[in-house]
Design goal:
single chain; 379 residues; alpha+beta; four-stranded antiparallel beta sheet; 18 helices; elongated
Length: 379
């Protein structure tokens, strides 16, 4: 209930959050994130952005520029590592790897629904309308900066928001509210608890992690698995058998070794989707992909990106048994598929496939795909 200073007290917020099943939350004001500005400016100016981000503007660091009525922000962290996903191991054989955040239901859908429930519960407790704006990953605002200032966790050297209870295996969201909300009395976490540990920096396959939690997004394999078209040569073998996303900097983090697990059924994993059969992915059509992956966070780029990544993964796995499945794809309608098939065949069976790749090269009209087939001209 409101008091003389605040429209919503912490006890009211706690009641609302507990009622709708939110595990971890914090509160901060809607004041601008001035300290974020130089970090964002250098990120764009140095060309470390991926193209997935919103362009630099006041919307990125000033909540009130984005939602003028905002007075407070409720930051929310939803854990997604369940007991089953914690125990899952990459099986041997012809299987790829999907980042564990995409093993269950799409967190955008799950969290937006829960934030909507939270706003309705607050309105019911107050007995008056509450204007809100829900933010889950796709708005210009920086969720990690909001969570940090709200005391949910600290930013690790891998750039991830790390919580005491769940490590970095949390989805972040925020609810901008047109009410003054009572803040917590004391910060709940230290500003930095990584200490001297540099395991994530040492383990990153591409050196994408810089100092002070900074990231070179163009080198991050998680983003690279999601770009369309041709993947630069220097990253292909580093992808290994990754089909979607990369968890390396999280799996090596000591803060993720002994964490609480999520009890949410929405995030229970499907092993067949977490470690998919690579050959099956080669023949995945759009409708089948939507049926299998449409409910997950791995669906938004479509099935052709997944097919391309499966071709790369088969080559990296040295799977020569996949050659008969790859050869027909030299005639695939998509040029990046044709190009990567030629690249994979060069790695798997160059002598046995040279003549067929040369035939494909002669009729290829796309210059990038043709470049990948040029090895067939070698004597």
């Amino acid at each position: 209930m409101p008091n003389d200073r605040y429209d919503i007290t912490m006890s009211t917020l706690e009641l609302a959050a507990n009622t709708v099943g939110i595990e971890k939350f914090g509160v901060t004001s809607a004041e601008p994130f001035h300290t974020l500005v130089p970090f964002l400016e250098s990120y764009y100016e140095e060309g470390r952005d991926t193209g997935f981000e919103h362009p630099m503007s006041d919307f990125r660091w000033n909540p009130r520029a984005y939602f003028t009525e905002a007075k407070s922000i409720i930051a929310v962290a939803v854990p997604y590592q369940t007991k089953q996903s914690q125990a899952m191991q990459h099986p041997s054989g012809r299987t790829g790897v999907v980042s564990r955040y995409a093993w269950g239901q799409d967190y955008h859908v799950v969290m937006k629904a829960q934030l909507e429930q939270l706003s309705m519960k607050l309105a019911a407790l107050l007995g008056e309308p509450v204007k809100v704006l829900a933010c889950v990953d796709t708005t210009p605002l920086v969720d990690r900066a909001i969570a940090l200032r709200a005391g949910i966790g600290w930013i690790g050297k891998n750039g991830m928001l790390i919580t005491k209870e769940y490590g970095s295996y949390v989805f972040l969201g925020a609810l901008l509210v047109d009410k003054n909300i009572e803040p917590a009395l004391t910060p709940s976490v230290p500003i930095d608890d990584c200490g001297e540990c540099n395991l994530c920096l040492q383990a990153c396959p591409t050196g994408a992690l810089l100092d002070q939690g900074r990231l070179d997004g163009k080198k991050c394999l998680s983003g690279i698995t999601q770009i369309k078209g041709m993947i630069p040569e220097e990253y292909r073998t580093k992808l290994g058998r990754r089909i979607w996303g990369c968890d390396t900097c999280q799996t090596v983090c000591p803060k993720n070794r002994h964490t609480l697990v999520s009890m949410r059924e929405e995030f229970e994993p499907d092993p067949a989707l977490g470690f998919p059969d690579l050959k099956a992915l080669l023949h995945l059509g759009g409708r089948q992909f939507k049926r299998l992956y449409g409910h997950t966070a791995a669906a938004w780029r479509g099935h052709q990106v997944i097919r391309r990544n499966a071709i790369i993964a088969l080559a990296n796995a040295g799977d020569t048994e996949a050659v008969p499945d790859l050869l027909p794809l030299l005639n695939d309608p998509r040029s990046e598929i044709r190009g990567f098939v030629a690249w994979a065949l060069h790695r798997l069976a160059p002598e046995d496939t040279r003549e067929l790749v040369y035939v494909a090269w002669k009729k290829e009209s796309d210059e990038l795909a043709k470049k990948e087939m040029a090895w067939s001209l070698e004597s």
